[in-house]
């Protein structure tokens, strides 16, 4: 499994904790920054992480900011990205099963590393259910392509 991971300063500590754990699990991890707790803009790191997925270099993206909210809002502005904010294991499972999310976001200030690991495992173990959910995902794509 190839994973791109990115954070702002608010998600940096969580990202730093997750990377070795993911590598120990056998995942190929690309760290898209940031590289310190110095203040930065989560928008830039949403873009860097999602670029790895869109270019085919990652199977999915993990994005971390203080709450997981800002970086998910930014990621969801990028064509082709469906990012689910995952504060719980149940939501992590559902964002894959129902939404076929290709990115998940986590709050470094709101989610412990232990819970974050359970969330990532739940997302990775889940499978997209297709069917009516595929039709809805297709509608999201159509919405994305609509001219205004
Ligand atoms: C940075 O202070 C914080 O606003 C950011 O990490 C994130 O929580 C925004 O949604």
Provide structural commentary.
This protein has 148 residues and is of the alpha/beta class. It has a single domain (2-147), classed as Sugar-phosphate isomerase, RpiB/LacA/LacB (Ribose 5-phosphate Isomerase B, Chain: A, 3-Layer(aba) Sandwich), CATH 3.40.1400.10. The chain is built from 6 helices and 5 strands. The chain has helices at residues 9-24, 42-54, 69-75, 89-97, 113-125, 132-145, and strands spanning 2-7, 28-31, 60-65, 83-85, 103-107. Strands 2-1-3-5-4 form a 5-stranded parallel β-sheet, sandwiched between helices. The longest helix is centred in the N-terminal third of the chain and has 16 residues, at 9-24. The radius of gyration is 14 Å and the shape is globular. The mean pLDDT is 98. The structure holds D-ribose (RB5). D-ribose binds at residues 8, 10, 42, 65-67, 69-70.
Number of discrete helical segments: 6
Q: Which class in CATH terms?
A: Alpha Beta
- In N-to-C order, the SSE pattern is EHEHEHEHEHH
Main sheet?
5 strands, parallel
CATH architecture: 3-Layer(aba) Sandwich
The distinct bound ligands, ions and cofactors come out as:
D-ribose
- Tell me what portion of residues adopts beta-strand conformation: 15-25%
Number of domains: 1
The name of the CATH superfamily reads: Sugar-phosphate isomerase, RpiB/LacA/LacB
Task: Describe the secondary structure blueprint for this structure.
Layout: E1 2-7, H1 9-24, E2 28-31, H2 42-54, E3 60-65, H3 69-75, E4 83-85, H4 89-97, E5 103-107, H5 113-125, H6 132-145
Parallel strand pairs: 1-2, 1-3, 3-5, 4-5
Helix pairs in contact: 2-3, 4-5
The site of D-ribose has 8 residues, from helix 3.
């Amino acid at each position: 499994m190839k994973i791109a991971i990115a954070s702002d300063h608010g998600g940096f500590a969580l990202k730093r904790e997750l990377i070795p754990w993911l590598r120990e699990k056998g995942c190929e991890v690309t760290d898209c920054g940031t590289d310190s707790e110095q203040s930065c803009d989560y928008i830039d790191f949403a873009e860097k992480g999602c670029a790895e997925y869109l270019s085919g270099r990652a199977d999915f993206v993990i994005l971390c900011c203080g709450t997981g909210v800002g970086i998910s809002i930014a990621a969801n502005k990028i064509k082709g990205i469906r990012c689910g904010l995952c504060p719980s294991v149940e939501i992590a499972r559902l964002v894959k099963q129902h939404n076929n999310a290709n990115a998940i976001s986590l709050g470094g200030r709101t989610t412990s590393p232990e819970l974050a690991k359970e969330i990532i495992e739940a997302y990775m173990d889940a499978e997209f259910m297709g069917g009516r959910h595929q039709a809805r995902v297709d509608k999201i794509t159509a919405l994305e392509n609509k001219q205004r």
